[in-house]
Amino acid sequence: MPAPIKTAILGTGIALNHLHWPLLSSLPDMFDVTTVMERKMAGVAKALCGDKIKVVATLDEVINSDVELIVVATSDGSHFEIIKKIFNAGKQHVFSEKPLTYHSAQSEELEALAKAKGKLLGVFQCRRWDGDYLTVKKLVDENRLGALTSYEVFYDFYRPADVAVEGAAPPQGVVHWKDDPAQNAGSIYAVGTHTIDQIYCLFGVPDKILGRTWGVRGSGVQDCFDASFMYPPRPSTDIPFFVRATTNLISPVDPQLKFVVKATKGAYVKYYEDDQWFALDRGEVLADTYGTEVKEHWGTATLVQADGSFKNEVIPTERGDYRQVYREMAEAVWANDPSKNSVQVSSVIQVTKMIEQALKSAKEDRWMIKGKDY
């Protein structure tokens, strides 16, 4: 195995302490995190990552160091300019938090720039390795439920304020970027980049797109969304296939609904979010149970029997593993071969285009039609 990749992480927010640091540090044969950029130099990086980490305040210091890979985990709207600057320097590969950018044209520019500079661009679409999504994918691939007629994925929370999740409120008079509509493009990007990405991976580009966004927390940010996608009838049926992704951040429901999949021979219903985020927070990334789900949280398939009756069957949740997105990135860097990444930037761009059409639909109050609008 080649030497571990010298890596820097930009940002000290929730993405660092809940995701990138525990995941990267769990793969020491692949990654050596040497540097963290902490603009405010408030001691967050040292407290989390230890004294061996070099902490710098500027992007230039990172670019001018000997790191080979830069993980961009800054605020969502900052990704484009930061990644563009890194690639123009021509020294490092980049691994970006999602959303890569808020605009497909910007993502296309970054994809082309990476190729021109001979560098790799990866995107943290970790929820392609959610156990519940992998379970749904297996049910679909194996045709356990018959021809699909509808698919709904929910990503709801009861979260009156994002700053509570970040761990500390900003100074008085300072608006947290997640509560600033000038910086935060809403939940359709923050959350839809996962759920709509899963939809794209399963079903591709839809024939029609209908979107709706709204805010419930008073900040001006469109913190809720509902996006519907219409696909041609599935094989062996003439029923139009409707897919829905939705998020509401004021959802006082326990447990939260996650998937409802209906088909001609059965259905699947799943509650509870994938546990990996919480396992990382508990420091369990190296535990034997990481990526597994307790039986009490497994989903249920209702299967139509030969006599027309229903039979409920509890479906074990597949094991997930967010580390796989990083393992693939390491293999891609070592081989200097972007095909090693199953998360291709081209697919990320397609998902962004679906989001853009959903937002245009919300603005114009109509279905967006393939071949006409996109």
Automatic annotation (TrEMBL):
<dbReference type="Pfam" id="PF22725">
    <property type="entry name" value="GFO_IDH_MocA_C3"/>
</dbReference>
<feature type="domain" description="Gfo/Idh/MocA-like oxidoreductase N-terminal">
    <location>
        <begin position="5"/>
        <end position="123"/>
    </location>
</feature>
<dbReference type="InterPro" id="IPR051317">
    <property type="entry name" value="Gfo/Idh/MocA_oxidoreduct"/>
</dbReference>
<dbReference type="InterPro" id="IPR055170">
    <property type="entry name" value="GFO_IDH_MocA-like_dom"/>
</dbReference>
<protein>
    <recommendedName>
        <fullName>NAD binding Rossmann fold oxidoreductase</fullName>
    </recommendedName>
</protein>
<dbReference type="Pfam" id="PF01408">
    <property type="entry name" value="GFO_IDH_MocA"/>
</dbReference>
<dbReference type="InterPro" id="IPR036291">
    <property type="entry name" value="NAD(P)-bd_dom_sf"/>
</dbReference>
<feature type="domain" description="GFO/IDH/MocA-like oxidoreductase">
    <location>
        <begin position="133"/>
        <end position="267"/>
    </location>
</feature>
<dbReference type="InterPro" id="IPR000683">
    <property type="entry name" value="Gfo/Idh/MocA-like_OxRdtase_N"/>
</dbReference>
<comment type="similarity">
    <text>Belongs to the Gfo/Idh/MocA family.</text>
</comment>
